[in-house]
Amino acid sequence: MDESPFRQFATWWADANVPMVLATAGPAARAVVLEEFDERGFCFWTSSDSPTGQQLAATPRAALVWLWDGRQARVEGAVERLSDEENARHWEGREGKRQLAAFAQSEPIESREALLARLDAIPDEPERPAFWVGYRVVPDRFEFWEVDDEYVHDRFEFARTAGQWHRRRLQP
Q1: 166 FRET partner, CA 20 to 30 A, in 24, 88, 96, 131?
Q2: Exposure b/e, 131-143, CB count within 10 A at least 16 = b
């Protein structure tokens, strides 16, 4: 087990990119795409008008969960909204339908055909809508769990106190 929770996560992430589950104080949980991560935290983008955006505005804390075959990583922390510069950079990096998909967020629609018609009406290179923003989960806690065939699972927690990460083993 690495001494840095970010390096440990990066090692597991390199093995297989898996969906990320975001849990907010709704309470609500849903899969979102982990777009990037570094020592500052884990970033994803969504509509600030969506239920997710509204929940994060009301209570800017979240938990993230990744499940691999026999492994789990969890992160808990504060959530911060990304800057306009970060949002613009991310938007320009999204191509084609990934930009269009930003316009189809969380609102009910009568049919798939209506959804496709709505997306067809959007220009090929739309400007980033004001509601399309990024969020960074700034971890204050990591937990790594690996299955053991005899159910003595291997669990470690990293908690940040006074700016330092402290690792401890947890019981299965």
Answers
A1: 24
A2: ebbbbbbbbeebb
